[in-house]
Amino acid sequence: MWVGVVSIFPDMFRALTSEGVVARAIAAGTLVVDVENPRNHADDRHSTVDDRPYGGGPGMVMKVEPLERSIAALKQRAGGPARTIYLSPQGEQLQQRKVESLAREERLVFVAGRYEGIDERVIEASVDEQISPVMVVIDAVARYLPGTLGNAESAEAESHRSGLLDWAHYTRPDLVAGRSVPPVLLGGDHETIRRFRLRDALGRTYERRPDLLSRRTLSDEERRLLSEYLEQPGRVDASRHMR
């Protein structure tokens, strides 16, 4: 199996590939791990891979171009089609059946996001699925330790903190290969942006983690926003999971 990883911390994978079962699989020739750093594909001399989120808020969002170039570089080296997976708290929970399914793939590319997340347009254009791996638990706990995050508000805004998945994030530029940022995030109306983000968070939770929504008592506003989300073309019955 060939595995490619997009990460701004490639040295972290030295421990993974030099010890334990992963190291044994590499030594046996059954596994190849190839890491690509998005900083190598940045456009400026500072190797910038993140920028402020459109619509405001704490934290930074990983940019489209360095990520997509990294994915393309890995796929070129893969020697064939590779399934691309974004490691995200919003993804499918990692269970044994999923592990067994992935083990049957010949080539995989994992995108390890950082900061507030990655620009939604990368997910739409280049990602096949999202998975929430066990390592996310360690990462999530570390975020709440004093001094871990540069902006204390980032921890308060983390996915699941309010019982909902996070909304989609976007950063500069506002237009990438014909894919634009939602206009509402460019308008500067903070109340409209808040409602847009809450609606997106509710809709994503409904679609991806209905178990979270079933444990939450929705406010009148949240019920209205979820109904608006589900009344969009191609959505399902708005009454499900609401209470």
Characterization of this structure:
- Strand 9 (175-176) and strand 10 (179-180) form a beta hairpin.
- The protein contains 10 helices and 10 strands.
- The radius of gyration is 19 Å and the shape is globular.
- Strands 2-1-6-5-8 form a 5-stranded parallel beta sheet. A 3-stranded mixed beta sheet has the order 3-4-7.
- With 243 residues, the protein is of the alpha/beta class.
- The model is unreliable at 238-243 (pLDDT under 50).
- The chain starts with a strand and ends in a 13-residue tail after the last helix.
Characteristics:
alpha/beta; three-stranded mixed β-sheet; Alpha/beta knot; disordered C terminus; 243 residues; five-stranded parallel β-sheet
Question: What's the N-to-C terminus distance?
Answer: 46 Å
The radius of gyration is 19 Å
Regions with little confidence, pLDDT below 50 for 5+ residues: 238-243
Largest sheet: 5 strands, parallel
What is the tally of helical segments? 10
Mean pLDDT, to the nearest integer, reads 87
Helix content: 25-40%
CATH topology of the domain at 2-160: Alpha/beta knot
Strand-pairing-aware structural class? alpha/beta
Shape: globular
Report the CATH architecture of the domain at 2-160.
Answer: 3-Layer(aba) Sandwich
Strand order of the largest sheet: 2-1-6-5-8
In the CATH scheme, the class of the domain at 2-160 would be Alpha Beta
Strand content: 15-25%
Q: How are helices and strands ordered from N to C?
A: EHHEEEHEHEEHEHHEEHHH
Q: Give the full name of the CATH homologous superfamily of the domain at 2-160.
A: SPOUT methyltransferase, trefoil knot domain
Q: Say how many strands there are.
A: 10
